[in-house]
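We store chain and fold; example below:
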Amino acid sequence: MTDAPADHGTPSERRRSKRVPVEVALGVHSDSNFFSGLTRDISDGGLFVATHTPLPLGTHVSVKFALPACPEMEAHGVVVWLSEPNTGHPGMGVQFVQLSKENEALIRRFMAKRDPLYHDLDD
C-alpha cells in the first residue's frame, strides 16, 4: 500500500473494502504511547482497535498482530476515526499507510475465508 492522506469522514463514507470480524491481540505504538488491545474487525485497508483510550485523530501508529494461522505482522497506519465509549464499541479506526505486499496478501487470504460484515453498493 502507498502513503495516503487520512480521510476523516464518517466510517461508511470512507470504507472502500469489505471488513471481516476478527478478535486478536495487538500492540499499538505511537511516538508517545504503547498499549495492548484487541481488534474488532479488519480489512485490507485498516483495522479497528477496541480501546477505552483511543489516540487522537491523525496519530501515526505502528500495529503488530497475528491473524489466526498467520505469522505476526506489522503495519504502519494513522488514526482516521474514533468510536466513543457511549457507543458500546469504544476504539479507533486505523488506516494502513504502509503494509508489506506479503502482509497484505496474508490479510486478503484471511478475509477470503470469512464472511464480511457488509458489502458496499459499488463492490
